Amino acid sequence: MKKITLIIVAILVAANLWAVDPSWTRVWEKSATLSTLPAYIGTGNNVRGMGVGTFEGEKVVVIPTREGGTAVKLLKASDGTEWKNLNVTGISGGTFAISDAGVTTDGKILVCNMVNSTSSVFKVYRWDNSTDAPTVAISYTLPAAHRIGDHITVKGSITNGTAKVYAFSTALVNSKATLFRFDMVSDGNGGYVFDNTPTIITDQVAATGGYNSVDLMPDGKYIYKYNGSQMLKLNADGSIPSPAESSSSSVIATGGNSVRFIMNRPAVNEGDPDTAYVAYFRYGSGQERANIVKFPGGTLNSSGAAISVYLPSLGTNANANGAGRVAIDDVTTNSANVYVFSTNNGIGKYSITWPDTPSSLKVTNESLKISKTSSLLIVEGNVPASIELFNSLGEKVQSVINKNELNISNLRGIHIVRVNVNGKITTQKILL
Predict the structure, then answer these.
(1) At 13, phi and psi to the nearest 5?
(2) 369-431 has which fold?
(3) Contact predicate 390/425, CB 8 Å
(4) The dihedral of CA 169, 172, 173, 175: what is its sign?
(5) Which terminus of the chain, N or C, has less C-beta within 10 A?
């Protein structure tokens, strides 16, 4: 029987063992597809935003709706049932009186209006409880004909002064679009309030479309997308990277918005970059869903970028504005909940789960000298204390102690072999 001696080299290391797409499960869905579209959403383009967070001890989905009148609905995030209606006394003004929503980490609900003309007042309303009328947390008079409020991103806590509201304009002023950030300042009494004068992150974005959305990456850079564009990045200081970093049209459809970072998944190979997972809302015929994209190294133009999950379509009702939202919550090492809203089509919650990646199986850069026959894997040199073989899901499929031969009968595909020689553990990928 011929024995083939091989050194595990780059061709095996290049195999992307852990780029296993996550699985998804529908937790609940109220949609045109399932013939359960709620009346508070309707089909009149009167609901365009959504927020998710914990409020009054309950994980909730916040729905600002103008269907049949101004209302802010709270759904239980656990099952999608209607829980409470917020008091909307005093809400007025704006092209849309209410538009999008977010929840701070300390449980305050923020809902904005939408304005699009010079001297219009952009407002963000704040609820601390479900009974009292809202207060006006932000009031900003537009100095020019920006359009803001279609989409806001809420981060941080009001209690500790870290809360921020991001709003990206979807109308060009002097041929440029602007990203606004509203920060907190001291209220003089030991607390914090929003500063009504925003910080301009950038006013140099040369193109924009509807529903311009933005989120932050772990490296502090901004990722953004608007209808008609690819995903794009800004540096942490708001400057445009040179060269510009943009996703590929072969991966990301231009018909989408509401970009949301989910998590970084650790690499297996020592020295290899982690993979960033990002979700966005995809609108259009046969769509009205969220797609989850993986970017090796967090680089948008990576050759390894690909769609890893297509969540189900919420319906086929016309959504001429391409309005929709994605929210991410309950992120753990291997899972996250993704909430998806499509104007005129519905809303759903989906659990996303990745296979476990044991950190102890990270592949080292050292090579093992291995022989194999059709039925045996042989580690040459000193007799190892142990040889263990793992499949692409991280499951141990074979092992042996104090021998240099391991039975690999009927095993095929890429595996990881882990060898302990005199207390030194080395791991490598191998193709069987």
Answers:
(1) -60, -30
(2) Immunoglobulin-like (2.60.40)
(3) no
(4) positive
(5) N
